Amino acid sequence: MVHKGDLVVIGISVGLALGILIASLIFFGIWWYKKRSNLRQCSNERILPTLPIRMNGLGTSNDFSASLASSITIRGSEHPQKSSPVSSWWNHHSKDQFASASGILRYSYKDIQKATQKFTTVLGQGSFGPVYKAVMPTGEVLAVKVLASNSKQGEKEFQTEISLLGRLHHRNLVNLLGYCIDKGSHMLIYQFMSNGSLANHLYNDEERFLSWEERLQIALDISHGIEYLHEGAVPPVIHRDLKSANILLDQSMRAKVADFGLSNEEDQQMELSRMASIKDGD
């Protein structure tokens, strides 16, 4: 015959055993989750490169491959890897495929020609080349910047924009959406800004007057875009050509900074030297 006291002891023992078992399972689950997270993080750091932002463009795929390989770091090592699966991958793929893999779409010359009505929808003429309005079959409106054939540094700038602008995304920057390399033409496809440039609104009498509230908001938008280029990009991006013509306005009159990342190497070195001397002077 089992006494009542024995039943109490058995119940307490079973309860404690179950409690310990449940606590052990919870502890093991937490430990396993953290271990998997750490393994995943280490795996990502070993596979994914931190691509450098090159301000002076990329002359050849070998140049970019070397830059890519030198940027890959492994946790626990302060020295860059000389060779990696990523650099091997790059050697067997073109810059065009890399841009597509980065989320930048490639368009054919035929598609752009049709969308721009055989390049008759001119929006303006910039230092990089003419800009056209393009209406895609989906109804999406884009801006197509065509590399001027007589531009001495156009090829360099074109490669720079694809590799650099594809990594920079901010609500106050004109984002690169696509590109075209076809029939000897190089084109960049951007967001379409329906209200044109800030310069048109400031200096064109035919445009409506900007209220002081709008001007203040535009100034804030510009400052946020430049702040991102200086603080959010690694290394920082120096615009070097910030002017009202390079500030574009969307349908809500919100400003976006355009034509950044086009500085040549000499310009950037001069700017970095100037900033360094200012810092030393402080």
Task: Report what the structure shows.
There is one protein chain. This protein is of the alpha+beta class and 282 residues long. The protein has two domains: 34-93, no CATH class; 99-281, Transferase(Phosphotransferase), domain 1. The protein has helices at residues 4-47, 61-70, 85-91, 95-101, 109-115, 154-165, 198-203, 212-232, 265-281, and strands at residues 105-106, 122-125, 130-135, 141-146, 176-182, 185-191, 247-249, 255-257. Strands 1-5-6-4-3-2 form a six-stranded mixed beta sheet, with helices on both faces. A two-stranded antiparallel sheet has the order 7-8. It is elongated, with a radius of gyration of 28 Å. The model is unreliable at 42-95 (pLDDT under 50). The chain crosses the membrane at residues 7-33. Its EC number is 2.7.11.1. This is non-specific serine/threonine protein kinase.
Describe the biggest sheet? Answer: 6 strands, mixed
Globally, the shape reads: elongated
Would you count the extended β strands for me?
8
CATH architecture of the largest domain: Orthogonal Bundle
Number of helices: 9
Could you give the topology of this structure?
Blueprint: H1 4-47, H2 61-70, H3 85-91, H4 95-101, E1 105-106, H5 109-115, E2 122-125, E3 130-135, E4 141-146, H6 154-165, E5 176-182, E6 185-191, H7 198-203, H8 212-232, E7 247-249, E8 255-257, H9 265-281
Parallel strand pairs: 1-5
Antiparallel strand pairs: 2-3, 3-4, 4-6, 5-6, 7-8
Helix pairs in contact: 2-3
Domain Protein kinase: 117-282
InterPro entries: Kinase-like_dom_sf, Prot_kinase_dom, Ser-Thr/Tyr_kinase_cat_dom, Ser/Thr_kinase_AS
Protein name: non-specific serine/threonine protein kinase
